[in-house]
Amino acid sequence: MGAVELLALAGSVSLLAGWRLYLCVFATGLAMRTGWIAAPEQLEMLTVLANPWVIGAAAIALAAEFLADKIAWLDSAWDAIHTLIRPVGGALLAAAIVDADDPAWQVVVFLLGGGAALLGHGAKASARAVVNTSPEPFSNVLVSGVEDVATGSLLFAALANPAVAIIVFVVALGFAIALLWFAGRLLKRLLSPRPPRESS
Hints:
mainly alpha
């Protein structure tokens, strides 16, 4: 696996961890545990995710996140709590992907992975804040379900084929930036004071 593929894989996992950290940990660990994904030598450090205790802890956290993410405003509270957790988790996942024999390379990827996870988290949290302004209760369930399926699918594609990880990274990065920009504009419009109506 070349440096470009490793960086793309680290970036993809980090970005996706910003959306669904526990799903990334659980799915990666389960796939390795069951043999769906054979970790290459460069990903040997990720085999700790296949530990039954890690999978179990991730499954409990995943279940809690799955439920919290479907309820309006509770999802935003959950996102607020995870503003520090997801970037650190994404950074650790990214650092585990690169060669442990090169500390400088690991530090660089750790920092970039944390930034990518923070970007993914910011895009998700901003978008969900916009969705929460909708008066009907079903948009949260729909958006959360799409996030679940998209994160799981993209994660599996990136881990199964490092060359595809480049495409996953570019798509996820572009989507996160576009979502953050779009959500920012909508929030600005929603929060900006409306001019008073002129009395006739």
